[in-house]
Amino acid sequence: METVLIYVLFFVGFVLLIKGAEFLVEAASALAKVMGISDMVIGLTIVSIGTSLPELIVNILASSQGNVDIAIGNVYGSNIVNVFFILGLSAIIRNLPLSKDTVIAEIPFSIAAIMIVGFLGNAEIWGDNDTLEGLSRYDGFLILFFFLLFFAYIIMTAINDRNNQTEAPPSTINKLREWSLILAGIAMLFFGGKWVVDGAVHFATLLGMSEAFIGLTIVAIGTSLPELMTSVVAARKGNVDVAVGNVVGSNIFNLLWILGLSAVISPLPMNKANNIDAFMVLMASTIIILLMIVSRKLEVKRWHGVVYILVYVGYIIYLLKRG
After folding, report:
1. Which residue of 124, 181, 192, 212 pairs with 133 in a disulfide if CB–CB is 3.0 to 4.6 A?
2. CATH domain 2-164+172-322 topology
3. pLDDT by residue (tens digit) across 245-284?
4. pTM across the whole model
C-alpha cells in the first residue's frame, strides 16, 4: 500500500510542479511591475527562492541523516541541470537576450561561488593540513557570509530599479491575490518537488543505483523540476528575465545558501570525484559567457541551447560509466 501511495504522489507531484510554476511566474511578473522592480530581480529572488525549496528540504534532510553524497550531489547536480538542461531547453524555445548586469555581475558571481566552494572543499584552511577534507561547519558559515553579500547586491539592485523607474506602475493589480498565488505556487512546487524526488529515489533504489549517482542525477533532476517548469513557462510567455534570473539565481542560492547551510548542519566530507562535478558546475557558468563571445551578442541563442543539451547528455554518460 505504501508503494502504491509513492507512485500516486509521484504523478500528482508532476501536476503540482506544472501548475505551481504557472502561478509563480505570472504572479511574480505582475508584482514586479507594481513594485517597480525588474523581472530579473524577481527572478533572482522570489522565483529563485521558491524553486530552490526542494533542494533546500532534500539537503537539510540528507545532511541531518548523514547522507553526504546526496547532499553534495544534489547541489552540484542541480546546478549542472539548471544550465545545461533547463537553460538549454529554454533557449531552444526562445532566444534569451541577457542584460549587461547579468553578464558582468550575476554570472561572474555564480562562477565565484563555485570557486569558493571548490577551494574550501579542497583545503583544510582551519587546520594544519592542506588536504581534501570537504566542507566543515566553519566553511559553511563562511559560505553563508558570501551569500549575504550576494543578497545585499540584490537589494541594492532592487532599490536602483525603483529609483530609476520612468513609468507609473499599474494600480489595478490586486497585490493580495498576487502574493497569495506566489505562496500557493511555492507550496505546490515544494510538495510537488518532494513527492517527485521521493518517488524517483524509490525507483532508483529498487534498481540498485549508488547514493552518489542518485544525488547527481535522479535527485538533482527531481529537485530542479520547479526551475525547469518555471523557466520553460517563462520562456514560452516571453518573460526572458524571469527564465534566466531563475537559473542564475538558483545556482547561486544552491551553492551559497543551501550547501552552506548543509555544512553548518553537518560537515560534508568530499572525494576526488566531487572535484570533477565541481568543474562541471564551473564549466556550466563559464560556457554561457564563452558562447556569447563567439556569437558577439549578449544572448543565449537556440544553437547555444543545443550545445548545452549535448554537453549534459555527455555528462550523464560519464556518470553512468563512473557508477
Report:
1. 124
2. A middle domain of Talin 1 (1.20.1420)
3. 888 888 898 899 989 988 898 888 887 788 888 999 999 8
4. 0.80
